[in-house]
Design brief:
The complex is a heterodimer of chains A (499) and B (262). Chain A has 499 residues and is α/β, with parallel strands linked by helices. Chain A has 18 helices and 22 strands. Helices cover 33% and strands 24% of the residues of chain A. In chain A, a hairpin with a 2-residue loop joins β9 and β10. In chain A, α9 packs across α18. Chain A is globular. The relative contact order of chain A is 0.11. Chain B is of the alpha/beta class. Helix content of chain B is 37%, strand content 23%. Chain B contains ten helices and 15 strands. In chain B, β4, α6 and β5 form a beta-alpha-beta unit. In chain B, α1 crosses α3 and α5 packs across α6. Classes of the chains: A alpha/beta (499), B alpha/beta (262). Chains A and B meet through α14 and α16 of A and α5, α10 and β15 of B.
């Protein structure tokens, strides 16, 4: 039965960022309803939820909460009014106990006026809540020691005890085992019964019917449609999710692939990777895609020896190898161009020549001395070929645009003469011209006998640049396709099907 | 204007009039007198003319053999050769390839030697001769009216010949791509031939060196959206890279950064 007026209504809401817009957003949530939000990576799901929970105000349109127009100035103000966003990175304190995290923000009211928090009592209360919810986590444990799935359960428990009237869950079940998922859904149902309204961001199609009342699809910052979960069909949701596909603009020159150079067997790293198998051929671009939490980056890190899987075998040119460290990976001819420049290896305060040559210093060393003129000469060659701008060898990296920084990173690893390149999100967040340069460098690499594992969340890029495509979902490769036969819709279909 | 284009015009002028003044040529070509003198020096070295005070006279009795001219290697700063190499990657043994007339496609014709069992259609005499020297490839010269300066064949006969073929890769050499991403060529006949060939081709690729961007030739061919891809040099301006990408047309460039695997 529909209540007379929704708990929350958004009318024609807009928000403009430099590189992203939310446009004409109309969405509503009733008391005791689970409204599922789906959309591909970067479609605007989390941005919309941040807007609702007071992270930033809208540029236009109206937000009505319990029938009244509201404009929360902060997340704290939103929380005081009963809206809580269980965001994985925010308001979870790694060095505090689980119990303190569960009761965070409630301490003054929960414990009366006393600011002397009685930790023993809090632990006991938490233990009681966990017993009720069937969560088996030690309330005294430090949050930072828990895994991703456990942290999601702690966050859900926090939502449960918060007395909030509107709770937002953001992909809580990525990397969750089935028993944990059942616990989470039990919490959701209890919240529903109490009349709490819930927004639930998900990428798993099976969850829509299992827990949702209505589902909305977001694509490029717009709501493409809202449907009732009990009557919606998967095909129309996939169509709304994929939108218009621009896939012609990728300059891939397909070529006949050579012999298998790498064989990966049964890589397991629980709870995320549950047995990954694939092979890579010489001169091939192998695309690997999957949604958030599918383990794309973790897989890359396993292959490059940054993370050690619990189980798994890798063969290079038919020979079994063990890769326990990036140095071993590099000695086997594997390079990883990592996902996040800011975290993984760009030295922002150092100059161009230092950044480009750092992975290949032995090339320039003779009799214990670095041959600086050779370093400069080779750097200049790369600067010219990759169109790195401005491209003076003494330029400090923090002055460069994202696209030029990324071309410096690509150059650094090209200089290493590897056979296998793992490129993790090589064009995320960079300008179109730099994308074109990097795609053409990839053509050059495979033309000269290298092989590339292209990991990307941008399905168009995967379709446009790969020879073969693997879809990673639920910790396994769920589909292998020739890119000629693949479409965005069927990739999304596999990627969202983990049930 | 390129040196090769100026030389062609100077030769034509001298053939018609027997002599020429530096300042007349400078006005005609829209380049400085210094540039004209340099071109005349080059033609003198080739035995084409004798320089006089303020101009040049054609060497009547030493006319260059037109067949030698056809086989003359066009000037290149390396950028055409790079583009031809990228184009070559797209061609597989046994394909039917068409090359429209032009100096860049001449480079590509030479490189096609690396493939076998190709059928190469062309309207360019120089390209046809080069393919005919390749043992494992076949050439079909599209007949028609001869354009003497371009050494290429055009007109309704070329178009009619073309109808008999299905082309896997059509490489179109254009003379300019302007700021609106409009492609242009320097004659109406060439535009007609290209438009006719487009209809019969599976993969149509424009080859255009970066220095022909932001330029207009006389005849409009159409927007870049009528072809399936563009090959240019990697030093092409960022603005063009961005706009071509945003037009959903693939831009293949001559990036050659990788030094190979160990």
């Amino acid at each position: 039965m529909k209540p007379s007026r929704p708990l929350l209504e958004l009318k024609n809401v807009r928000k403009h960022f430099v590189d992203f817009h939310l446009e004409e957003v109309d969405i509503e949530l009733n008391k005791g309803e689970v409204h599922v939000l789906i959309g591909e990576n970067g479609s605007g799901k989390s941005t919309l939820m941040k807007l609702i929970s007071g992270w930033f105000p809208p540029d236009g349109g109206a937000i009505l909460y319990k029938g009244e127009p509201v404009q929360f100035r902060s997340i704290h103000e939103a929380q005081k009014n009963g809206i809580i966003y269980l965001h994985q990175d925010v308001q979870s304190f790694n060095n505090l106990s689980v119990a303190e995290n569960v009761f965070f923000g409630r301490v003054p009211t929960f414990w009366g006026i006393s600011f002397f928090v009685d930790l023993q009592r809090m632990l006991a209360e938490c233990q009681q809540v966990f017993a009720e919810l069937k969560i088996s986590i030690d309330p005294a444990a430090q949050l930072g020691h828990l895994g991703y799935a456990e942290r999601q359960l702690v966050a859900a428990a926090r939502g449960y005890v918060s007395d909030a009237e509107l709770v937002i869950f953001d992909e809580p079940t990525s990397a969750m085992s089935e028993p944990d998922r059942n616990i989470l859904f039990d919490i959701l149902n209890r919240l529903k019964e109490n009349g709490t309204g819930i927004f639930y961001i998900s990428h798993r199609m099976d969850e829509i019917r299992r827990i949702g009342n209505r589902v909305s699809v977001i694509h490029k910052g717009r709501i493409r449609g809202t449907e009732r979960c009990d009557s919606v069909d998967k095909g129309s949701l996939l169509k709304m999710m994929s939108g218009d596909v621009l896939k012609n603009r990728y300059p891939r020159i397909g070529a006949e692939a050579g012999p298998v150079v790498m064989k990966v067997k049964n890589i397991v790293l629980k709870p995320i990777l549950k047995g990954v198998d694939f092979h890579l051929r010489r001169g091939e671009i192998l695309g690997i895609t999957g949604l958030m939490g599918s383990g794309r980056t973790l897989l890359a890190n396993c292959l490059f020896g940054i993370v050690r899987p619990e189980y798994g075998q890798v063969e290079i040119n038919g020979e079994k190898v063990s890769i326990r460290h990036p140095i071993e990976a590099m000695s086997r001819g594997i390079s990883l161009i990592p996902e996040d420049r800011a975290v993984n290896g760009m030295f922002f305060r150092h100059n161009l020549i230092q950044n480009i040559t750092t992975a290949t210093l032995p090339r320039f060393r003779s009799k214990g001395i670095l041959n600086e003129s050779y370093m400069r000469e080779l750097t200049q060659d790369y600067v010219r070929e990759m169109s790195i701008k401005p491209g003076n060898t003494g330029d400090i990296m923090e002055t460069y645009s994202g696209g030029n920084q990324q071309k410096v990173m690509v150059s650094r690893w090209l200089m290493n003469h590897s056979k296998i390149y793992i490129m993790d999100e090589p064009t995320r967040g960079i300008d179109a011209a730099s994308k074109v340069d990097i795609y053409n460098a990839m053509n050059d690499m495979v033309d000269k006998g290298a092989s590339i594992i292209l990991i990307s969340s941008e399905i168009e890029e995967i379709l446009g640049m790969s020879d073969r495509i693997l879809v990673l979902a639920g910790g396994r490769i769920v589909a292998v396709m020739n890119s000629k036969d693949a479409t965005k819709e069927n990739i999304l279909d596999y990627a969202t099907d983990e049930g | 204007m390129y040196a090769i284009e100026r030389i062609r015009i100077i030769k034509k002028y001298l053939e018609e009039r027997g002599q020429a003044q530096v300042h007349t040529l400078s006005n005609l070509l829209g380049v400085s007198e210094v540039t004209v003198r340099r071109d005349l020096e080059r033609l003198e070295r080739d035995g084409w003319l004798t320089r006089t005070h303020g101009g040049a006279v054609i060497n009547q009795n030493e006319t260059v053999d037109p067949l030698l001219e056809i086989l003359e290697e066009p000037e290149d700063d390396g950028s055409r050769d790079e583009i031809a190499s990228v184009a070559l990657r797209m061609v597989k043994d046994g394909d039917v390839v068409m090359l429209t007339n032009g100096a860049l496609n001449v480079r590509l014709a030479v490189k096609l030697e690396e493939r076998s069992n190709l059928t190469v259609l062309t309207n360019d005499l120089s390209i046809a001769l080069r393919i005919s020297l390749q043992n494992s490839n076949k050439v079909v010269l599209l007949g028609g009216d001869m354009d003497k300066s371009e050494k290429a064949l055009f007109g309704s006969m070329s178009l009619a010949n073309l109808q008999k073929f299905y082309v896997n890769h059509l490489f179109i050499e254009v003379d300019g791509i302007n700021n609106n991403l409009q492609m242009t060529v320097n004659s109406q006949e060439k535009a007609n031939l290209i438009l006719g060939a487009l209809e019969l081709s599976e993969n149509s690729i424009v080859v255009c060196p970066s220095d022909r961007f932001s330029k207009n030739a006389f005849y409009r061919l159409g927007k870049i959206s009528i072809v399936r891809g563009i090959i240019s040099n990697s030093k092409l301006e960022e603005d063009y890279k961005t706009r071509i990408f945003n037009s959903d047309i693939p831009l293949y460039t001559t990036v050659a950064a990788f030094e190979g695997s160990q």
